[in-house]
Design goal:
two-stranded antiparallel ribbon
């Protein structure tokens, strides 16, 4: 499934490029800037919740890592 996402993380349209099966386990790493300097955190969080809900997550399936960076220099 592919989606076009607006700057406020709203799904504009979705489409399936092809019906496929994947025999490999995938790992996804998500790194977010938590300083609110780019986007409001609530919009990022809502997008990530919808994204992860669409994955088949499990010990022998898709693995997801989430890192939230929030520091001052």
């Amino acid at each position: 499934m592919c989606s076009d996402i607006s700057p406020t993380f709203q799904v504009l349209r979705s489409f399936s490029p092809a019906l496929q099966t994947c025999s490999a386990v995938i790992d996804i790493a998500i790194v977010c800037d938590g300083s609110n300097s780019i986007y409001p955190w609530s919009a990022v969080r809502n997008f990530l919740e919808k994204f992860v809900e669409g994955l088949d997550v499990g010990p022998t399936k898709t693995q997801v890592n989430f890192t939230h960076l929030n520091f001052s220099v």
